[in-house]
Amino acid sequence: MSKIQNIGVLTSGGDAPGMNAAIRAVVRGSLYYKLKVTGILRGYDGLINADFMPMDGKSVANIIQRGGTILKTARCDDFRTVEGRAKAYQNLVDNGIDALVVIGGDGTFTGADIFSQEYDFPIIGLPGTIDNDLEGTDLTIGYDTAINTVVNAVDKIRDTAESHDRLFIVEVMGRDSGLIALRSGIGVGAEAILIPEAKTTVSDLVYRIEHGRKDKASKIIVVAEGDEAGGAYNVGETLKKKFPHHDIRVSVLGHIQRGGKPSCMDRVLASRLGVAAVEGLLEGKSKVMVGQINKEIVFTPFAKAIKHIDAAQITPGWLRLAEILSL
Ligand code: ATP
């Protein structure tokens, strides 16, 4: 029989739509197994400052459809220190919390891995990040909503671009990865997509604009914020110099990509993984992230989960597809 009686749950790092659905599933899953569950506010910051609140079925009522996280989230430098983690451990012991579910991305799991090794403390991670950059799950919670938010926004931009015969450069999130740009770019029928993983340069763009179809009323270029061209404004400036007669506009989508109601896909994924995390802890699993691969629940060691998998998702085949469709 498992010794776990009180599970602590926190959200950490960048917020992602579906985090609330995940919290709800962890709480309801814990209650189903007659466990106590404690909400920890502002990620590891709340762990270090003992900012805890007991949770019951009611405390997660009516949140499955809400973006953001009711537990708040934070980036916490103190958790990177031995002293900070010692305080966190003492607070867990003092409050009778004997296992943790952490919802976040690679940084959150790196911290969880270090902590659980130092104190042999049971921790399971839930992949909550819009980046979809974790190994051990086909999708992370929040990614589906984020790319749909981008698609909805760019569809609106396309309407105005088409009406005015404009070229729009749209910047989307992705400091280290062009995954959001590539998938949403294909989804909106972008004329070009600039991502850090591909070698397309602004000169390539110029060539394409000069030699592309002349009958296109509008053009949309999707740029990942981490592209080496330096973001949408830089690309815009270069293109404006080359094509002074073109009506060129720039739009940076920014934080709207993190917000909003989670898609049904994200709600269902978060719900399934949240309950699986509780069950995993009760089965004695720890230092692992729970994910879904080919419809199956899979537990992956933190150290493996945090290895970025962009290489598998941004293949030459995907880049070729985007190019074929932009003709
Ligand atoms: P996202 O992918 O949305 O950015 P994330 O979980 O990767 O989410 P980070 O800000 O990288 O977000 O990490 C969240 C928190 O995890 C950090 O603020 C810090 O408290 C903790 N953390 C990250 N790296 C370490 C580390 N090496 N040691 C201890 N704690 C860490």
Written overview of the protein:
The chain is of the alpha/beta class and 327 residues long. The protein folds into two domains: 6-142 and 262-306, Rossmann fold; 146-258, Phosphofructokinase domain (Rossmann fold), CATH 3.40.50. Helices cover 42% and strands 18% of the residues. The chain is built from twelve helices and eleven strands. The protein has helices spanning 19-32, 44-48, 82-94, 106-119, 143-164, 179-188, 202-211, 232-242, 264-282, 302-305, 310-313, 316-325, and strands at residues 6-11, 36-40, 52-55, 99-104, 123-127, 167-172, 192-194, 219-224, 248-252, 288-293, 296-301. The strands form two sheets. The protein has a seven-stranded mixed sheet with strand order 3-2-1-4-5-10-11, with helices on both faces. Strand 7 (192-194), helix 7 and strand 8 form a beta-alpha-beta unit. Helix 1 packs parallel to helix 9 (264-282) and helix 5 packs across helix 6 (179-188). The longest helix is centred in the middle third of the chain and has 22 residues, at 143-164. The N and C termini lie far apart (61 Å). The protein binds adenosine-5'-triphosphate (ATP). Residues 12-14, 44, 75-76, 79-80, 104-108, 110-111, 114, 129, 131 line the site of adenosine-5'-triphosphate.
